[in-house]
Design brief:
The structure is a homotrimer of 279-residue chains.
Chain A: H1 12-26, E1 29-33, H2 39-48, E2 52-54, H3 62-68, E3 71-75, H4 81-96, E4 101-104, H5 112-122, E5 128-131, H6 133-140, H7 162-175, E6 178-181, E7 186-189, E8 194-197, H8 210-224, H9 228-248, H10 253-266, H11 269-275
Parallel strand pairs in A: 1-2, 1-3, 3-4, 4-5, 5-6
Antiparallel strand pairs in A: 6-7, 7-8
Helix pairs in contact in A: 1-8, 1-9, 2-8, 3-4, 8-9, 9-10
Chain lengths: 279, 279, 279
């Protein structure tokens, strides 16, 4: 494992390039408990970067899969009794092995039972939590300033991030997790460190399961980079850079989704360095 | 809301162009209870036209999602106990809000339990029902003449539509729903009005979940066009025109499915007007 | 039905071309009990070659679908109680009609309950079993020599196949099934006959559900070719040849998956004959 904690920002493109090189070399196994809409796209995203996905949620099997996984994704989309049982079993196995897991509290702003369970899970030391602004509000109770972190659908503008930054830092410290908040600008914080990624493209909001797949990519990066802050930022930078490259080569959301997978697969050091807009 | 009842036919391309412009502007929320095969493709079709899909079928959550949806899709593919429970909960919420819903009775010609339940649902005032000829026969008991409405796989020929037209009008009147019957020619009827759309391409039958996605698109159009007849016809015209455009640009069903999403995303007034073959 | 048992090898390209011509002509129905990750891709692969997929696993419906299917796919990915019940019902119907079925024991090397159930199923006379080397080891208990049959991800090299060949022949004889073992080289055996297919491309390992879809294609070929050995070899040859063609035309795993479907759809006699590397 590489990577010691550092301020990052200017170094992120080089760090991310290293992380993605290690992914291809080591082929970590990621067990994904995710919603049925996102399963196939998520698996293809993981395969594209060299990771090996598994997806079963069957209670009698999930322990075997989690036991050999290098990281676990817990995604709350399509939240049902079977998935909830699977999450508990998988989390126990992953914790036994002291391996990392990530929480993606999909749409907890809409569903009360989902939000309540997400709060419980956030207290169980995920290495990272990836979410959007509405989900962050529902999870943390934080408020002012976050309305700036709209979906990438909106024209990208410089948010007034003071309040958002503070709220993120507080919640990261409280949960001892890295928070990756994605939107027109992605922000990543671990309580002491903070980074903003201005890359991305509005077409990323016109394809289903993009956020879910971003979380899976964070899980993969957590396997090859011990510093969860660097791992999370690397995954989100890669995602947003691939989104820009794909947008240049596509004619709509259908071709975008296809070319995006190619772009992630083909990301190299030069692309990270030339494209990254990080502060 | 726009749109007062009118005979349509010659006006349909302009009406459909307006409907699709409003979709992009208003971004309606569509809750989809649909089969697992169709979920991802359906979500991507809705996102491509500017609508916002949700897909959960978990009993403890579906009420929250249906409560904030602008329309509901009830698709009977992969008909199971969980989905049946979800349908009942979602329908109650949607009916409370007097918002529209659409029934897609997938393959009820094969499964008796599914057909029986579809007949119950058809009696609960869906704004529209979209189906193919075999499903229409199973749902309505109508017969003669409908054998002409084969899948688009068949060479397009002018059907003898007299009997079909009458059967459709009767069933539409009986259910107080708009019926959208898709095939080599699509026909839409509401009991008094009737329209036929000759657009489309055989490759539309070589991609899974195309019919399911067409129904989801009807649901979206119902949110921005009060006249359910105009909404249904607009959705089916858009679908068939996009199919023709995509066929011109693809080399098989794989690329067709991708380019089809792009084409729907990029549909503009000129394409509706130049391509529509409506009577 | 065509096809009498023969040694194949040199004849396989012509036999496979005939099989695929018959698929397009006869449009057999394949009922697929498969995992949720693979459903949409599998359906699209079947549609691309002219077959008609169905996918329901609901216990109250699966008998109706299996009763009218020409073949059944039993895929153990996402192995749960509902799918297990569906498998039993569907197998009974298929056996009554003396129609063929295929077993795909996905990842039984990881999950003990899945492996135990796969062994039971292998004793119930599937026409074919398609699996990779690790799954073959878990199912048959065979060992030495099989480590050569890595995933296609590895550089293709000539395996020392003596032991593998013997182990396959023994297991095929024991189960009275054709065994299709896929990897860098695919091998097909029925106890007396044996064939090796050296076609394929590493990108086939970078797309989820490729193996699952290959099994579905075997199911389709079993409907139009009475000799299960020829049917299995034809399906796997088509798959690997389409993989090579798609790799030539794609820029990564995203475009590969799309172009692969086009390539399968467009396979013709010349491509089989010019591309096949069979011994």
């Amino acid at each position: 494992m590489h990577g010691s904690p550092h301020a990052l920002a200017g170094d992120l493109p080089a760090v991310a390039a290293d992380v993605f090189a290690r992914l291809r070399e080591r082929a970590p196994r990621i067990h994904c408990i995710t919603n049925s809409v996102a399963q196939a796209f998520t698996a293809n995203i993981l395969l594209a970067v060299g990771a090996i996905p598994s997806m079963t949620i069957a209670p009698q099997e999930v322990a075997d899969f989690a036991a050999r996984a290098d990281a676990l994704l817990v995604n709350l989309g399509t939240f049902d009794a079977e998935r909830r049982a699977a999450i508990e079993i998988a989390l126990e196995k992953i914790s036994e092995g002291k391996r990392p897991w990530i929480l993606d509290p999909v749409l907890i702003d809409v569903s009360q039972p989902r939000a309540a369970y997400a709060r419980v899970l956030a207290g169980r030391k995920p290495a990272a939590i990836r979410l959007n602004a509405a989900e962050f509000l529902a999870l943390s109770g934080a408020g002012a300033g976050l309305e700036h972190f709209q979906a990438k659908r909106e024209p990208v503008r410089r948010p007034e991030t003071r309040h958002a930054k503070d709220a993120l830092a507080r919640f990261a410290a409280e949960t001892a997790s890295v928070i990756g908040l994605t939107g027109a600008t992605d922000i990543v914080g671990d309580g002491t460190r903070h980074i903003e990624i201005a890359n991305g493209h509005p077409l990323m909001n016109a394809v289903t399961a993009m956020g879910c797949a971003a979380s899976a990519l964070v899980a993969a990066c957590l396997c090859v980079e011990k510093d969860a802050f660097a791992a999370t930022a690397s995954a989100l930078l890669a995602f947003s850079v691939a989104g820009e490259i794909a947008a240049d080569m596509s004619k709509g959301p259908g071709s975008f989704a296809v070319v995006f997978i190619d772009a992630l697969h083909n990301l190299d050091r030069t692309m990270f360095i030339n494209r990254a807009r990080v502060s």
